[in-house]
Amino acid sequence: MKLFSLFAFGAVFLCFQATIHAEKNKEFQERAEIYSRLIDCDYYKSDEYEYKNFTELSTLPNAQPTGYLARVPVYILGSRDGHIILSPTNTPNKTTDQVYEILLGGWGNTRAVLRKKIRNYAFVDVEAKNILSPVRPLKVVIEVSKDGHINVFTDNNVEPLLSAYDPNPLPVKYISFASFEYANVEYLYNCVSDKSAVLSANSIPKKPAQPSDPSDLQTVPIEDLVHKCKYEEHWENDYKTFHALSDFNTQAEGYQFKVHFYAHGSQDVHVVLSATDKPNLEKDSVYEIIIGGWKNTRHVIRRKKGEEVLEELHLPELLLENKQSKFLIQLTNNNELEVFVGGKLYKPVLWTKDPKPIPVKYISFASNDGNRVLVFYNCEGDKTSNVLSTKETNNLVVPAIHEEEVLNKKCKHYDAWENNYTDTIKLKSLANVQPEGYVVRLPLYIQGVRDAHILLSQSSEPDPNNGYEILLGGWGNLKTLIRKNGEVIAETEEYNVLNEFKPIKVLIEMTRDGEIRVLTEYNTHQPLLQVKDANPLTDLNTLSFTAYFRDIKFWYDCKE
User: Fold this and answer.
1) 217 is a domain residue
2) Where do the DSSP E strands lie in 168-242?
3) pTM score, two decimals?
4) Fewest beta carbons within 10 Å, which of 156, 177, 300, 353?
């Protein structure tokens, strides 16, 4: 339906009114200017969530310019729930077919969403309060580039309101409009003023700048990563493709396999390890690993899909929302299944020892409940394949021990709970902790969920204001720091430094020339934390431990 006289009359009237009241009512003037452009448009009105009328993009001038599958300006009038889809077909199936759906003014005109299915598969969901208006048309430009960039701009803003990248862009050919539950929404498109529109510089997709180290694939934009790796896109909990572990270069001494991969998603990275390439997931024993489940709050290993939990960790916000996380899953010859997630280096997330191990030969990936996960594997130039795992030796000199029974026999032991240093241990009573060139060189084992405090004091009583204090796993196991005389002199954010389920080896070094280093068994190439103290404390006498209302176990003075 074309709009001629109605909007022409409205434009003349509003422009006349705007002339009179421009100084007093800027918003009214802006509205008049918008209406004055809306002459000779196609028009559609909807009050229900049904896509009934489809317009072929090829019939709209400039809707498919060079480099784009679609670039469509639309004006929307309504109080809430504006729905637009770009579809490869004019009869999309609501439950099975993929489309690009844009929702503006959802949830009472408070949110905007970009989806890959009708009412499902959200790429991005943002707050957008009062974005729609029943009296002021909202200009929207929807762009889908041939290289997979999807952008939704509003009111000529330089930055898109909604943006996503699809490595396999849909071949969209049609546009359609809808509303929701009697919200009367009006759409104007194919307007005369937009037919000669030229692409603006900010609307052309820009290739992100290359990272300083392209070998660190955790920082590479996903649009570049798709050219470096094999990849899969997952939205549901359906393990469709099983890959042979032999295709992943998984061999390593002491291990049945080691698998490295990257995943881009804010929750629900699901992995199945199986003995066959066609397991019956309802009956067969498999290892199912979930990272970032339950809205990125819990992580589990199961011995059967949906059943028999072997290990579980409650740790929120482990997965990163805007960049990929790197993963390492490995099974030792002693049947220890270990899961690591990478920050600067890999950190342990889950560990279990299975008395009835599954002869794993295949791996499959999935997600859950419409949450998007992109999995990248077998990447070119990936240097993470040599990242330290728990069995490799490093600056800690000898392999770490993870059995409490062994440590209880080889080491002295201290249990902490309250946030209070109550006991002291004389450093001179410990073997080999003050070698030549060091004020102290202290190996430890620590087990706990968070907040391990270690105090090295110059006084005979524990005094944080007269020595160095090291805090590992503070702020919910997210931060590690060093204090000198109560003042922070170094800190770093590294999640999961501590492990609730097994002891982690730690080495604290303080040299006489002021170098202070904190290493863990997961640091191969660099300390977890390092600082140079220009005026070092060289007369340290006592060692103390405490926690922060969580059980922390310390083992020290071990006989290696």
Assistant:
1) no
2) 174-178, 185-189, 230-234
3) 0.66
4) 156
410 three-class SS:
helix
Looking at the fold, whether 413 and 488 belong to one and the same domain comes out as yes
Which residue is listed with tokens 């052309």? Answer: 204
Residues near 200 by beta carbon (within 8 Å), at least 6 away in sequence: none
CA distances (Å), origin 540, targets 159, 328, 389, 487, 556: 56, 39, 33, 17, 17
189 and 56 in a common domain: yes
- Which domain-ending residue is among 143, 165, 198? 198
Report the number of distinct structural domains present in the chain: 4
Same structural domain, 47 and 169: yes
Q: Which of 3-7, 36-40, 45-49, 229-233 has the lowest mean pLDDT?
A: 3-7
β-bridge mates for residue 533, sequence order: none
Give one DSSP letter per residue of 462-479, joined into a string: --TTSEEEEEEEHHHHTE
Q: CA 143, CA 163: separation in Å to the nearest integer? A: 10
User: Residue 180 domain-assigned?
Assistant: yes
Alpha carbon distance 398, 395 (integer Å) = 8
- The C-alpha atoms of residue 321 and residue 501 are separated, in whole angstroms, by 27
CATH code of 305's domain: 2.60.120.200
Q: Is residue 413 part of a domain?
A: yes
| Phi, psi dihedrals of residue 398, rounded to the nearest 5° | -125, 160
DSSP 5-56: HHHHHHHHHHHHHHHHHTTT-HHHHHHHHHHHH--SEEEEEE-SS----EEE
Task: Assess whether 434 and 496 both reside in one domain.
Answer: yes
Instruction: Give the three-class secondary structure for 72.
Output: strand
H-helix or E-strand containing 227? helix 222-228
Instruction: State whether 354 and 499 are in the same domain.
Output: no
Contact of 496 with 341, CB cutoff 8 Å = yes
Q: Are residues 143 and 236 in the same domain?
A: no
CB 10 within 8 A of CB 137: no
Asked which of 241-255, 295-309, 410-424 is least confident by mean pLDDT, the reply is 241-255
> What is the signed CA dihedral for 94, 95, 101, 102, rounded to 10 degrees?
90
Q: Tokens standing for 549?
A: 């209302």
Report the residue count for the chain: 560
Tell me 211's DSSP state: P
The verdict on 234 and 379 lying in the same domain is yes
Does 163 fall in a domain?
A: yes
Q: Quick one: tokens of 269?
A: 């990275």
**Statement to judge: residues 260 and 242 lie in one domain:** yes
pLDDT digits 0-9 by tens, 390-421: 333 334 445 567 688 889 999 999 999 888 99
pLDDT in tens, 442-456: 999 999 988 999 999
Q: Which domain holds residue 122?
A: 43-198
